[in-house]
Amino acid sequence: RFYGGFWQQISEDLRRKIYINDEPTIEVDYKGLHAAMLSSLAGVKVSGDIYDLKSQLLPKLPKTSQRKVVKALVLAAINAKTSKSAYAAFRDSRDKGTIEKRLTNQELEILLNGFVERNPHLEQSLCSDQGIRLMYLDSQITSYIINHFTIRGKAILTVHDSYIIVSDDVDLLRDT
Predict the structure, then answer these.
(1) Are 20 and 155 in contact, with CB atoms under 8 Å apart?
(2) Structural Rg of the chain based on CA atoms
(3) Cα atoms found within 13 Å of the Cα of residue 73, Cβ hemisphere only
(4) pLDDT at position 1 over 80
(5) Do 59 and 90 form a contact (C-beta atoms < 8 A)?
């Protein structure tokens, strides 16, 4: 991953105000990048939001919060060696006093099983300690994109799995 740019340290609202060469920019975010990469490596094309389970699985967790929880849980599971360590890492990342912080291993397992039910091709990728490998792969993708834009004399700013570009360059980014 590429770190150090001031734009990576500011809020999304402030990033919306960035201009490049007096032109407005847009931040194109590739949501669910690691899950999408693993899906692609498994030969599965994903459409829609991979973290949306379509139904509320835990009565005490509002459906509006569930997607965010599932995403954080899946990312923790991709980075972990065991489900127990994934659940602990998930809880460690949650704010004190939140519902998410108090979710039990059994409740987190229900969510993770719900994710696997909708995405069975990713079951082997969970609790597989692949986070570093995926970050390396997404850094290779970002390096390729930066080089592609630089060769064409186009400016691009990176923020992990999103890119800030002049609005006219959205198609170039998608094609790249």
Answers:
(1) yes
(2) 18
(3) 29
(4) no
(5) no
Spatial separation of the C-alpha atoms in residues 84 and 76, rounded to whole Å: 11
SS3 for 41? helix
Token pair for residue 18?
Answer: 């960035």
Q: How far apart are CA 40 and CA 55, in angstroms?
A: 25
Listed residue (132, 121, 118, 114) closest to 75, CA to CA: 132
- pTM of the predicted structure, to 2 decimals: 0.81
Beta bridge partners of 163: 28, 158
169 to 35, 128, 137, 153, 158: CA distances (angstroms): 25, 36, 23, 12, 14
Distances (CA, A) of 42 to 24, 88, 113, 141, 174: 37, 27, 19, 18, 21
Q: Which of 119, 122, 113 is nearest to 41 (CA)?
A: 122
CA 47 to chain centre: 15
**60, 99 Cβ separation under 8 angstroms:** yes
pLDDT tens for 108-142 read 999 999 999 999 999 999 999 998 899 899 899 99
For the chain, the farthest-separated pair of C-alpha atoms sits apart, in whole angstroms, at 53
Closest CA to 163 of 26, 10, 11: 26
Confidence of residue 21 (pLDDT cuts 50, 70, 90): very high
- Map residue 20 onto helix, strand or coil: strand
Q: Give the residues across from 65 on adjacent strands.
A: none
